[in-house]
Amino acid sequence: MYWDKQHECMDREALTKLQSERLCATVKRAYENVPAYTKKFDEIGLKPEDIKGIEDLHKIPFTVKTDFRDNYPFGLFATDMDDVVRVHASSGTTGKATVVGYTKNDIDCWATMVARQLAAGGVGSKDIVQVAYGYGLFTGGLGLHYGAEKVGATVIPISTGNTKRQITMLQDMGATAIAGTPSYILHIGETVKEMGIDPKTLPVKVSIMGAEPWTEEMRKEIEELLDIDALDIYGLSEVMGPGVSYECLEKHGLHINEDMLIAEIIDPDTGEQLPDGKQGELVFTSLTKEALPLLRYRTKDITYLDPEPCACGRTFKRMHRILGRCDDMLIIRGVNVFPSQIETVIFNIEGIEPHYQIVVDRDERRLDDMEVWVEVSPDVISGEVRTLEKLNKKITHDLRSLLGIGCKVKLVEPLSIPRSEGKSKRIIDKREVYK
Ligand code: DLL
Fold first, then answer.
1. pLDDT of 423 strictly over 70
2. Which of 51, 63, 129, 212 could be joined to 148 by an S-S link, Cβ 3.0–4.6 Å?
3. Domain of 230?
4. Are residues 16 and 63 both part of a single domain?
């Protein structure tokens, strides 16, 4: 099932022409309205007129996450705030969030992206979609919500958490599709099993899952537990939110919404463009975004592109599921966490040595569990237990308020965290999420 066959199955020549036209308009808009882009272009003597089509893309300087921090909160917006109807935010690398904005038209384009995903999973106006992504500054909840409304489905905006209630809703309201992070849907599936419910009695037939890395093994498990098709949806706030690319029922890579975005793969070390099929860092340029035009945004996600047409008939290039990151960002229960954020908290607290380690695993419910080990100074460790407890509470509290998720803190003796001679090993991730 297609939502927008005209674009999703466009021939390559027409698509390239459309991309080139839209690229020129985007470059002009960014250069004329966003001082950060004017500066980037002027510094290398590049004029918007020098960009005549996608063949000139490589001339454009990259945009990176720190550009958001440097222009916090609205400095990268290309429209008046009068035209911005929504903002979302995701984690920055330190204390400041990455803020993104949308005009009415941007929201409509985004909903179209998600509608394409839903239709590709067989979801239409007769369906009921339970949205179990978080609603709020995170783009997951509202992103799926607007896409589901666009296809005319009935939305259950339940948000995340309260698993038993999720299952009751699935039973009582008869949702035919569910959207959420793969680890959460897996947890729902396992709870269904524990409760002795036969998945065949649930009308749900498909799940739309993303926001964090997952594996083919997880797909099989979820499909068996809930007797459904499990599809991968990719996206990031800076570029739009969920729906940047989407899987069809062939389950063979994610179609990139190429009429609204240009995807490139680059060598993360040299910045050189790499040919289709070669693994590297994924980079996006927006083609329709009004509030926040983005030129060559480096996602830090690693994958490769497949230009072969898919058996489903869509011509949009596919990206392989995300294979890793070229930075140290972790995704814990769908929330992006940078070790530098943890460092910001820890280094601002007295009585602590500048040594820490982050240990990530899955708990008995298969949900992510993060523990931060922090070295305390010799006088604190030999002091009163009460002082240690207070310190632990303070770190736990400060981490929760900066990261937006809870984690356990373990205070350890001075010198107990291994010192390394090169790059310190800050993260021990036992989850094996990239395969
Ligand atoms: O996670 C948007 C989203 C919401 C996507 C719901 C899909 C579903 P951010 O919070 O900005 O946005 O995080 C973006 O999450 O750069 C990837 O590293 C990771 N990510 C997102 N989707 C996938 C996926 C949302 N399907 C960051 N597979 C991205 C692997 C994913 N990683």
1. no
2. 129
3. 1-327
4. yes
